TrEMBL record, chain A:
UniProt name for this protein: Sugar ABC transporter permease
CDD domains, sorted: TM_PBP2
UniProt-listed Pfam families: BPD_transp_1 (PF00528)
PROSITE patterns: ABC_TM1
Transmembrane segments: 7-30, 73-95, 115-136, 164-184, 227-245, 272-294
Keyword Plastid among record annotations: no
UniProtKB/TrEMBL annotation, chain B:
Protein name: Carbohydrate ABC transporter permease
GO cellular component: plasma membrane
Membrane-crossing segments per the record: 26-49, 89-115, 127-149, 161-181, 202-224, 263-284
UniProt source species: Nonomuraea montanisoli
Annotated PANTHER family: ABC TRANSPORTER PERMEASE PROTEIN MG189-RELATED, ABC TRANSPORTER PERMEASE PROTEIN MG189-RELATED-RELATED
Amino acid sequence: MERWRTYGFVAGFLAVPIVLYTVFVISPYVQAFQISLTDWNGIAARPAYVGLDNFGRLLGDEVFWRALRNHGILLLVLPIATIVIALFFAFVLNLGGGARGPGMAGVRGSGFYRVVFFFPQVLAVAVVGVLFKAVYRPDESGVINGALIRLGMEPVGWLIEPDLALWSIIAVMVWQAVGFYVVLFSAGMAAIPKDYFEAAALDGAGRVRLFFSITLPLLRDTVQVGWVYLGIAAFDGFALIQVLAGEKGEPDGATTVLPIEIWKNAFSYSKVGYASAMGVALFFLTVTFAVLTLRTTRRERIDL
Amino acid sequence: MTPDSLRSVRQARSSRSLPADRPRPGVLNGLSHAALAVWALLIVAPLLWTFLASFKSNTEIFGDALQLPGELRLDAWGRAWGKAHVGRYLLNTAVVVAVSTFGTMLFGSMAAYVLARYRFPGSRVIYYYFTAGMAFPVFLALGPLFFVVKRVGLLYTHTGVILVYIAYSLPFTVFFLAAFFRTLPESVAEAARIDGASHTRTFFQIMLPMARAGLVSITIFNVLGQWNQYLLPLVLLARDQEDWVITQGIANISTLAGYEADWPGLFAAVCMAVLPVLVVYVVFQRQIQSGLGAGALK
């Protein structure tokens, strides 16, 4: 009796969340896989089943490969740049002040910097896009070029040079992401017992040594989590690229990524089947990345 | 001890803590302070520039970027609020986010609670069913989602967007809150049970208040995440401009600024979109950062 009452309670609490989640999250994902095997245009009542044709076409699509190349660059540069910068700041903010009083402390002003660094994280990507459109303007009215001209240098076409545009966009992503990882790594560093640092400092280890010999090895798990998050972010980038570079990934598709192509195919060209095939490709890329990262970097945990 | 030997001891000590082959802390300190200051400047500068640009004229905006506005013009703020409907967009966003965050927290904490603290057949499966949602790229679902919402008759409505926001926030919310509920002591729940409180009552009157710290952090995350959501409304609220949320409005004003040549209006609109977020952030930054740290490490 009591058991059944408990089950009734459990079912009652789970019913609404499961229904909402199944209808709006899981069912679209499942449908995406089905649709990717059809030539559906979003209107036809009975779309024709075309097997793996969409995927065959994908492999011959130059734009698809360009998007993949851009994801490759993002996947390498975004995590490395963000993690290196964030680790440096997290270390300085938490332990950079050296042994002060009992245990280690951050440099002066740590609290202030932490608040400022994290702020871009709470800004909407659409807003960030508008901000950096102004920052990157190609003439003296751009914030960077205005400063460059003051210093007697030539203005740079940050978003209009095909070779430069993607890098300018990655810089914005790093700008926005660093604060989050500073906080993440700070939490990781706070979990390292203070005696480790004190013992090492007594043995004459400097701050550089403290970082590489103690902080980094003990922070491995946290860095790995960060790496996976950033890698998954590298497979997106839609909103920022759409606002900064337009729907085609200007200049001339140089900055395009899969989400941009999915959007274009599904909602501008009505090629829902083909767009879904791209979505499925994106899904397998993301999952492969996450599994590979977690597998290859797994190691014995260090127990504190 | 002679003064000489004292000095040598002192030297030995100082050379022990400061070997010559390492940069002196002064240099290192200076460098780290410079790096911190530069990064802070990189973050503040675009925001400050945008704020100042909202008081500039078009000519000033297209002139030297490092010039201050010639006079304090407030008309762009008025235009952005009225003509560009920023007021309307902010109101829409506030209503949508208030309802959807409440729904997310209610349903998310209910699901997380039973998954974390009750043993029943299939509980692991359901837990993974929810958290798997964090791994899927939203883009995969986007096309079909449009048609799902259309079929249930909620396309281009705030109700539709609210339900979709709740559904897409559940994986994250369930994951973090389940971790949180697991840390709460069993003894209190048991005491309540012995006193004859029903499961539902135990949850709402005892467990929820105990989980307040976790609930506050996750609520703020959901508020910010849903306030900044761009992709879902772009698909689900595409039709009527009256129903748009703030991110759609900003992206649209940004496109229009090129045609209508109202750049100060655009920057005033951006400021209006940022200010509420800034206030929430400054008030709650402690909870945001501690919640994030605690949650992400579980």
